Predict the structure.
Amino acid sequence: MGRYAIEPWFERDFVQTYDHPLIQSDGHVNGAPSDTSVFFWDSFGRVRTSRDDANAPWVGYRILTIDLGTDSRYVRSTMDEFDAAVGLHLGETGGWKFSTVLGAGYSSTHPFTHTSGIFGIGHLLAEKQIDDHQGLVLSVDYEGNSSFLPDVPLPGFAYVWQSPKVQAYVGYPQSKAIWKPSPKWEVSAGYTVPYTADVDVEYRAWEHVGFYANAGNFCQGVVTASRDGVPEGDITNRQFYQFKRIESGVRFIFDPWVDAAVSVGYAFDQTVSTGFDVRDMQGFAQLSNQPYIAFVIRGRF
């Protein structure tokens, strides 16, 4: 939910959604007789209560579902996370604007079989506009299913820049920049601590058709429901899935409502690990490098 704590709304959007499913088939666990058929879908979005009020409350969600499609005795095939939160404006004083994001989530390799997968979400933000282009954000951030220090609220900051061609915030634990050198081209890059990153290049060839290329790294852990030697719902020994990817495809654009794309890609360095967080994460299974088919659907209403 941290991304929504900083990112501004586009114009008069009431709803923003993003979905990225991808499908791999005919893979295997390296060094083992187990096959894999990975299905991955990351979906998130938010809805605000008013188009006209920049400080209107909003509700956000994230649904992450991963099925590694393997019968390996060592790998829990399914990994799921469900998040929901509300964003609230708290007030202004001394040129600073204060807001908060409060919510909860659930993660598990077998959803809703235990209560250990429940976690809290909380962000407290102070924002100051320096001038027409620059701003500063200070925060205290808590994501109970984070891959890094999930049990500790962490300080955060961001330097914000907005201009007709560049929108960016750079800081900790998240950074993102969007550069629009011309009406047809857009380049964006984002990073979230510790191991999640994306670089995206888009070209709008015609009014309703464009092309894009993307590269990224994904890392996420969920509470282990059960595994040999691991107690039910052990939050100190989560299962992590990490992979790198490159993909390219065709976009179909119907402004301002839907931007949908179909693409082909290649997933590599796919690792399943166990641990509390990235500080003690230990890989125990490698999935084969595989091509995949993916879809990207962005909605604005």
Summary: The two ends are 20 Å apart (CA to CA).
